[in-house]
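Late entry, written up from scratch paper. The run itself happened at the end of the previous shift, but nothing got recorded in the book at the time, so transcribing now.
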Amino acid sequence: MAATRIGTSEDLLEELRGWVLHETPTTDAAAVNGLMDRAEAALREAGAEVTRVPGRDGYGDNLIARTPPSPSTGNRKPVVIAGHLDTVWDHGTLAASMPWKVEGEKAFGPGIYDMKAGSFLAFHALREILRQGVTTNSPITLLLTPDEEVGSPTSRELIEQEARGASAVLIPEPAGNPGGACVTARKGVGRFVVRIQGVSSHAGGNWTEGRSAVVALAGIVQKVHAMVDLAAGVTTNVAPVWGGTRPNVIPPEAGCEIDLRVANLEDGARMEREILALAGSEDGITITVEGGMNRPSFTENPDILNLYERARALAREAGYELPKQHRGGGSDGNFTAALGIPTLDGLGCTGAGAHAPFEHILWRDLAPRGQVIAGLLETL
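Output as recorded:
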């Protein structure tokens, strides 16, 4: 049982409410930084050593909070827990379509499930460990980031830097369904953009002079779809697509984006080569392909399973069973697991509806889920 007193789910929900009411779309650095300010002030007051890394490229800041040096932790490697404060929801979503509300077991609001509840629990667990003077086996590093929802372009380097010196990494992304499962493996994610240049002409009087970029795009779509191998865990998806101007004009331009998911690093490298090889020129058509693997695969291994068993034992002490799952979506855990650092993901709150208008958490699970996070931070 965790020594840290986490508090009641009712109290946690009330403080989490303030985080949800503070809208933080990824594209608004000032809004994300406003919530960073709130977390930073509370952590400094509790005694954390805080570093604020200024944002760049239009994104918000990163925040690193560390427990002070202690004789109990000696020279042990830290345990890192990392969450993001940005959401996919634009300003005004609360007022227009997704108001904060609590209905029975469910609490609703933009970003509450993905992943303000989980990031809040990580913040709260560290704050209470510091406030209560709880002894931990290892130093703790909390990392709060501003841009996970767009692939972590400015935070990846920092996440990997902190992970390299860690004994383990915890990711409080939303718990999975069914049963509030944590995550011991994730697919790798690739993103590509295809642009096609053809030759414009009149669709009636000069049809033979044209070279349709849309027809070429249709061929690309078929080739990419044929790369799907469900047995191997390889999937592709083409969307969005675009091309053409008017029905009577042979389209000179077209394009698409490609989403790639793979189960292992080898397939990621192979599929990246195959998709990039779609580029080329022939008979007036020029195809360019940009992109690559955005997140490496997160593969289950014995060290990760050992982390899971520790979390599972803590969950039983907190009164619930903690299943595990492999998930198709990526997270910042992909980066840390690919470095060989034991990583356990999906430790956030139960609920459903990530990126959907019915997004919600099962708020009575806040305290028991927080208790497991605190227990891991204390004992790893």
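The mean pLDDT is 97.
(Scratch paper discarded after transcription.)
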